[in-house]
Design goal:
Layout: H1 2-14, E1 17-22, H2 25-28, H3 42-46, H4 48-51, H5 54-59, H6 61-77, H7 82-93, E2 96-101, H8 107-110, E3 117-118, E4 127-128, E5 167-168, H9 180-191, E6 195-199, H10 210-217, E7 221-225, E8 238-240, H11 244-257
Parallel strand pairs: 1-2, 1-6, 2-3, 6-7, 7-8
Antiparallel strand pairs: 4-5
The protein binds nicotinamide-adenine-dinucleotide (NAD) and adenosine-5-diphosphoribose.
Length: 262
């Protein structure tokens, strides 16, 4: 409601250091399925918990690589939504703004957000399975080469150009630790911000889910945008029940329009 929106807008407009923490829900209105939403959740459809693991890749690299090619193709067809663009405006308007995302799509970047912190890696950063993990370079698949997983879109992963080992998706799988540098930067930003805006995350997967809790413990104002209740509700100061593409543009307008012009 508008009282809550203006309360959130005031905190955001007055903030010096803002962190925007996003999950799959920010990309839902771009047509990229979330992980745990009932009807559209990725896990429900493809039992992804089986696919997004080192064991699955070892057992059947072509199936797992095919699934990630299918996800990459879906993201390529998607476009950033007004929620992504509002986040770019927030980062540009706040004296200091940082985006921390659990998403592996590149929609924040394509909406003009510079250098978002990817806690779970990226679909567009495959790497070699060798310990060195040198970034893998290889040609993109020809258009149309990626078939829906339902048709068993098995695609053999490419070989690393440096050492001929298999190339793997550059995402963090179930059971794997998060990239150290990304997690450290995210925790540092959360511990020193005035406002943390959490959008489109169920807040159930650790250690990513620690980020908003660290901000709250450090005294930051936590604002949440999510159509559903989440376990982050108890640490949230202003809970905006709604979707990213609806709420975020209104929040930005209320936060910065009031100081412009009048
Ligand atoms: P997990 O339970 O295996 O834990 C992952 C890491 O978080 C481990 O290092 C664990 O020690 C640490 N951890 C667990 N609970 C914690 C807590 N309360 N506080 C601090 N650290 C904690 O996590 P998971 O569900 O198996 O998934 C591993 C990671 O992979 C998660 O971050 C998940 O989001 C990510 N993942 C990514 C994809 C993808 O396709 N992008 C798919 C599945 C999972
Ligand atoms: N606007 C805002 N929030 C939305 C929207 C929307 N249009 N649509 C759905 N949501 C909310 C849902 O209510 C839910 O709380 O987004 C959240 C999506 O939660 P998940 O599917 O669990 O996605 P996420 O929180 O990003 O999952 C965390 O777990 O599976 C791993 O690595 C994977 O990064 C993922 C992590």
């Amino acid at each position: 409601d508008s009282v809550l929106l203006h309360q959130a807008a005031r905190s955001l407009g007055d903030a010096h250091r803002v962190v925007v923490f996003t999950g799959a829900g920010i990309s839902a209105e771009s047509g990229v399925p979330t992980f745990r939403d009932d009807l559209t959740g990725l896990w429900a459809r493809f039992d992804a918990a089986q696919l997004a693991t080192p064991e699955a890749f070892h057992a059947d690299p072509d199936l797992v690589w095919g699934w990630y090619e299918w996800r990459r193709a879906r993201v390529r067809r998607a476009t950033p939504n007004p929620g992504h663009r509002a986040i770019t405006t927030i980062v540009d308007r706040a004296p200091a703004g940082t985006v921390v995302t659990q998403n592996v799509d590149d929609l924040h970047e394509r909406a003009g957000t510079r250098a978002p912190i990817h806690l779970h890696g990226s679909l567009f950063a495959p790497r070699c399975v060798a310990a060195a993990g040198h970034p893998a370079t290889f040609p993109d698949l020809p258009e149309g080469a990626v078939t829906e997983l339902a048709e068993g879109g098995r695609i053999p992963p490419p070989r690393c150009v440096s050492c001929a080992a298999l190339v793997r998706p550059g995402v963090v799988w179930f059971g794997e630790a998060l990239p150290e540098a990304a997690l450290t930067a995210a925790v540092e930003a959360a511990a020193t911000c005035d406002v943390l805006l959490t959008v489109g995350t169920s807040g159930v997967v650790y250690p990513a889910a620690e980020v908003p809790r660290i901000a709250a413990r450090a005294g930051a104002t936590v604002i949440q945008v999510n159509p559903e209740p989440t376990p982050l509700d108890p640490v949230t100061a202003v809970n905006l029940r709604g979707t990213a593409a609806q709420v975020l543009p209104a929040l930005v307008a209320a936060a910065w329009e009031r100081t412009d012009g009048n």
